[in-house]
Amino acid sequence: MSIREAASERRRRAAAGTPSPLRSERVRTVYAGLLTAILDHRLPPGTRLPEDEIGAAFGASRTIVRAALQALAHERVVVVEPNRGAQVAKPTVEEARQVFEVRSLLEPRAASLAAARATKADITALRRHLKDERDAMAADDRHRAIALSASFHIRIAEIAEHAILEGFIRELTSRSSLVVSLYWHRPDTICERHAHSALVDALAEGAADRAADLMRSHLVDLLSGLDFSRPLPQPRSLAALLGPR
Amino acid sequence: MSIREAASERRRRAAAGTPSPLRSERVRTVYAGLLTAILDHRLPPGTRLPEDEIGAAFGASRTIVRAALQALAHERVVVVEPNRGAQVAKPTVEEARQVFEVRSLLEPRAASLAAARATKADITALRRHLKDERDAMAADDRHRAIALSASFHIRIAEIAEHAILEGFIRELTSRSSLVVSLYWHRPDTICERHAHSALVDALAEGAADRAADLMRSHLVDLLSGLDFSRPLPQPRSLAALLGPR
DNA sequence: GTGTGCACTATTGTATACGATGATTGTGGA
DNA sequence: TCCACAATCATCGTATACAATAGTGCACAC
């Protein structure tokens, strides 16, 4: 078995254990459909998710939909209020800070592990990923750019071959996507692209400590692109909406 | 803000602190019953968990049991194999290492936050907790001692008032309990008791850095009490079992 | 005696029916 | 005009029936 095959085999096994432990294929379909829609910001925070409607959209029964929603709720991507149904989560400012704080505890380690383990094939794949990001941004495909930017972090966690870190980072990047959709307010996303690229360079050289540092500062940078000062992103009552006509 | 909005807001906040986002009270009952049984090591790793049987034990329908099992599966305390049912998780050696590695990334931060935030009442409660641990050990109530030892770490995460850290630490301590039940092999647990006690002292003084260091070394110490060298706790094939008769 | 295949059993997967809950609207009275 | 209360509606919560699946043991042929 070649080195690359061995790596891919390792990766496959790692991936098997990773995502949410969903029993059936149909639940996974609904779960994945909802999750990507949320991460793409097609379903913004606060969107109600009635079981019937989702079931109709996916051609699934409420049993299936409920299982998918429960999984998403466990990852805090949706919140369910008893007897009131589910909706896309609306992270508070405090929650947003905590998400990035925990990311900055976990992801530098993932980066340094990845630096130690990355194969040539991994680096190639990452560079291709960077190119996709650039293309999406050039094409002004904001949804796709956001999704790719998040999955870059997940790719690194995968390369680190650390199932638990990967699982937590998956959850945190999902939640970050919601945070970004509520609080992002920086015009230029150039620095981020540069940060990702520098990180890949460090990984390619196997520079574990540098990779960790780059990841750390990248996360600080992301956090600084958020604007928590705006009054309130969400609750605006109907009165407020209709008043200043 | 209207009364209705305020109520929904309160509900939302209440749900936020809930360990696992379980919709109904009955699901929570089954979930909690199973979890404590597992953490107490009354249900050892590998125990099969048929839905009917659990339902009968708790007087609940399979619908309820399934929801509880799914939640436990998400926390990796049980594993479900499609069409084959659920069983108490049996962490591998690799998983065990990872659990403690991630704990040592997260818990020192929790400890230092707790040092900054702990009130006198918190410290009193922690000292009472320590006493309970001592009593359980003195009474040779191994189950209770193990459970208390784990919940000590959770208490600290609660004091840190960091919902995300707390959630992750909850999951990791649960998984640690399974690891301990499979791999623990140290006769003396005295050092641990001492470690907890020193940690509370640091929290009482508000010594954040020292608390973090103590937590870090405590976790290293716990890891060193595990014996991964024994052949294999679980998978031994039938051939291996029958061969060297 | 050995191997193959079939029926049986135990268990999970899914849909659906029915009851319960909470929001909303409409009506009556003060 | 406003509040209280009742009826309505949408939606969720739960039990249960039935289908599907994996595991088990038996019987039969060779």
Adjacency order of strands in the biggest sheet of chain A: 1-3-2
Radius of gyration of chain A: 19 Å
The CATH topology of the largest domain in chain A corresponds to: Four Helix Bundle (Hemerythrin (Met), subunit A)
The helix/strand series of chain A, from N terminus to C terminus, equals HHEHHEEHHHHHHH
Q: Mean pLDDT score of chain A, rounded? A: 87
Number of helices of chain A: 11
Indicate how many domains the architecture of chain A comprises: 2
Assembly level: homodimer
Question: What descriptive keywords fit this protein?
Answer:
homodimer, 245 residues, mainly alpha, Arc Repressor Mutant, subunit A, Four Helix Bundle (Hemerythrin (Met), subunit A), three-stranded antiparallel β-sheet, globular, disordered C terminus, DNA-binding
Describe the structure.
Two copies of one chain form a homodimer. Chain A is mainly alpha-helical. Chain A folds into two domains: 19-88, Arc Repressor Mutant, subunit A (Orthogonal Bundle); 93-224, Up-down Bundle (Four Helix Bundle (Hemerythrin (Met), subunit A)). Chain A contains eleven helices and three strands; from the N terminus they run H-H-E-H-H-E-E-H-H-H-H-H-H-H. Chain A has a three-stranded antiparallel sheet with strand order 1-3-2. In chain A, strand 2 and strand 3 form a beta hairpin. In chain A, helix 5 runs parallel beside helix 9 (190-205) and helix 5 packs antiparallel against helix 10. The longest helix of chain A is centred in the middle third of the chain and has 25 residues, at 93-117. The N and C termini of chain A lie far apart (69 Å). The relative contact order of chain A is 0.13. The structure holds a DNA duplex (30 and 30 nucleotides).
